[in-house]
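Handoff note, outgoing to incoming analyst
You'll be picking up this chain. Sequence as last confirmed:
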Amino acid sequence: MQLAINTTQNVVINFSAASVGDRLLAQIIDLLVKAAYVFFMVFMFEIFDLTNIFVGLDTWSIIAIYSVLGMPIMFYSLVQESLWEGKTIGKKLMKMRVIKLDGYQASFGDYLIRWLFRIVEISIGNGIIALIAIIANSKNQRLGDMAAGTSVISLKNKVNINHTILQEVNDDYVPTYPLVIKLSDNDVRIVKETFETAIASRDYGTLIKLREKIIAVTGIKNISGNDQDFIKTLLKDYNFYTQNM
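Most recent structure output, in case you need it:
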């Protein structure tokens, strides 16, 4: 299934929505990671006989200790999605991520909303509520996605990215200009749009001015050859670094 997302710049971007099967597999992987944490903690308690720390403690103190130990499981998805730009370990392995329906990166508030709804969707009925919502929704959204205005997309294939700042980059791609990270998403979007317009109209004067402006702002030295190759490499480098930051 594809998602046609209309950005705030009124540009339509097509993404492949993560399938129900992929999302279930990602959820199973995340559950296995949580289970591994539980087994590790049980192992540590047995090896070091840590149960002695509960001797003489009142009920509330014991509950507090278990609550602290359970935090990595409780906040698992919220912390990972916030730090890894919409990914958990399961989503990383299944090559998926959470994005806003305007095509931009979700914020912490969006991840928080998804996490709060997860308590209801995943915890109650062992995820049946979430599963029904995803199947019934045209954008494969669970209730938390609907509330946060997000969706989970597949990164296995990039689709129709000609009107975005993205450039196709192979896994073994080697970047040339690390200083490109001085540019913002908006800067790169302007560079790409100006570049494509200049190429289409054979406006080589604009290409020269664009290259000079980029060099002036970033301090990058052109070692790629002509202006076209330089800007193409620059765009690919930006995509490489922002995907791997």
